[in-house]
Sequence to fold (298 residues):
Amino acid sequence: MIAHDEPRARPAAADLNWGLGHRRTLLSAALTVVAGAMTVAAMVPLLSVLAMLIYRGGQRLTPQLFLALPPAAGMEGGGVGNALVGTLLMVAIATALSVPFGVLAAVFLAEFGPETRLAGAVRFVAKVLSGLPSVLAGLFAYAAVVLATGTYSALAGGAALAVLMLPTVLLTAEQALKAVPRRMREAAVGMGCTPTQAVWHVVLPAALPGVLTGVMLAVARAAGETAPLLFTALFSDYWLTRNPMSPTPSLAVLIFDFSSSPFRNQVEVAWAASLVLVALVMLTNVAARTWAARSAPK
Fold:
C-alpha cells in the first residue's frame, strides 16, 4: 500500500494573533512611527515657507497690488499688475507652442509608430529634456529668438517656457492615449472608421482628461521659472500694450530683482509677488490633480 502524507494541521487562530510584544509587531510599529516622523519633517519646510509668505506677503495683498506698476527705487506703494499680465501672456504663448506639438507627437508614439526607432529616439529626447536645467532652455531661446529678432520679448520668453513644457505634455499625453481601452479603437474601426478617424474622434476625446492634466502640470512648472526669462524676456516697468516684441515683465523676474533691493517697499512687493506666484502654481496643481481624480475610470 502507498502511504499518503498526513495533511498538515492548520495553525491555530491564537498563533496568527501576534501580541504587542511580538518582534514583527514591534518592527511594524517602529517603521510606522519613522514614516510618520519623516512625513512631518518633510512638511515642516513647506509649511514654514507658506506661513512666512502669508505673513509677509499677505500684508500687501490688496486690490491696488494687482492694478499698480512696480515701485521705483525709494518710492512707496506700487504693485505687480504688469508682471502678472506678462506672466500670463508668456505662459499662454508657451502653451500655444508646446501643446499642439506635444499632443501630435504623443499620438504618433502611442498610435502609429510605438515600436519604431524614431519613437524610441523621441521618447529618449523627451525624457532628457524633462530633466534639462531651465537656464539651458533660456540660452536656447536667446540664441534662436532674441538674437534673430534683435530684442528681448514675450515671444522669446514664451519659446523658452515652451521648451520646458513640451516633454511634460508629450509624455503625459502618450500615457493618457495608451490608457484608452483597445476595444474602443477596434469598435471604431469595425464601424468603418479609418485609423486616423478612430484616433481623432474616439481615442483623443477619451484621453482628453489625462492630456489636460499634463498640460496644467506643465503650465504650473513654466509659471514659476525665472532663469529662462532673464535671458529672453528681461523686465519692464511699463504695462504691456500692443507690442509683444519688447521686454516683458514677469512675477518671477520681479521677485528676483526686488528680493535683494535695499529699499523696504520693494522687498515687501517681492514678498507679495511671491505669494501671488505660489498661489497661482498651487491652484494649477490642485486643479490638475482634482481633474485627474474625477476623470479617472472607476
User: Anything to note?
Assistant: The domain at 85-250 is CATH 1.10.3720.10 (MetI-like fold). The chain has eleven helices and no strands.
